[in-house]
């Protein structure tokens, strides 16, 4: 059994002023509860907010929490870089300061209470603990539909993801150090974590509805995340192009044989419409294939440029050890 760990709870926030006061109260209560149950060392445990370039009063709120409480710190990105990069900024920030970190969305739709179980698993020797939603009935039907669709598609494409798990998880410091060695720009954390290995466990909970504010993950962002997940972790779409090409060539060969036989039997070839359909079909397949190649090429271009993944604009004052 390990001794009481120092914990960073990292919370990415994009335009979350409507809910942040509520969430902050719950997060501070949770740190206190963990400390009272001997599950964390309150001296150097923190809630770390990452303001992902919000345009509302989110940073003002974070700064005021940090003024008031020694448990709260915040960093502000210079512009909106997306949830995954905001999380990365938080992980970078806390890696040398804690024994473990727990990431959770600012709206606390993922049950904060089960973080106690996560820490218990850590104390028992686990390095990674996944939070898994076993009930998503609070999400809209369309969101559930496309989330399920993307999960199934990714699994079919060989991406190793944990169904029902998003970005609510505990990571020990040594796993975090390894995670930060992955330098990719198209970041898809939930695809990388299973690649790390280490002893892993899971805790289960029902996802609740967002109490205030609106989702910052519209269909467009979810689609971009799913495409990142597939392209970064799977070569199956590229292979599918090759298979499609083979299938087309085979069909064409059969067609040629059929035409040859028809000509020998004296049947004249009719059917311009079917010819046009075939032409459009092949043209469509070619464009789709070029599009898929383009997606991979675009990713490679992005990766080779090695641009920074976020920029820090401001941070709240660091607290010395709490008493
Ligand atoms: N978020 C972020 N940057 C973005 C979009 C979202 O940091 O560009 C944060 C957001 O503030 C929240 C988390 O990512 O903490 C998940 O977003 P949200 O709850 O809106 O997604 P949903 O639960 O609807 O999938
Ligand atoms: Mg949410």
Could you characterize what this model shows?
- This protein folds into 2 domains: 7-216 and 308-315, Spore Coat Polysaccharide Biosynthesis Protein SpsA, Chain A (Alpha-Beta Complex); 236-305.
- The mean pLDDT is 89.
- By secondary structure, the protein is an alpha/beta fold.
- It has 10 helices and 8 strands.
- The longest helix has 34 residues, at 272-305.
- The chain starts with 6 loop residues before the first strand and ends in an 8-residue tail after the last strand.
- Helix 9 packs antiparallel against helix 10 (272-305).
- It binds uridine-5'-diphosphate and magnesium ion (MG).
- Uridine-5'-diphosphate (UDP) is lined by residues 12-14, 16, 52, 80, 82-83, 86, 105-107, 109, 215-217.
What order do the helices and strands come in, and which of them pair?
Elements (H helix, E strand, L loop, with lengths): L6 E7 L3 H20 L9 E6 L6 H11 L3 E6 L5 H12 L5 E4 L11 H9 L4 E8 L5 H16 L8 E8 H7 L9 H8 L3 E7 L12 H15 L2 H29 L7 H34 L6 E4 L8
Parallel strand pairs: 1-2, 1-4, 2-3, 5-7
Antiparallel strand pairs: 3-8, 4-6, 5-6
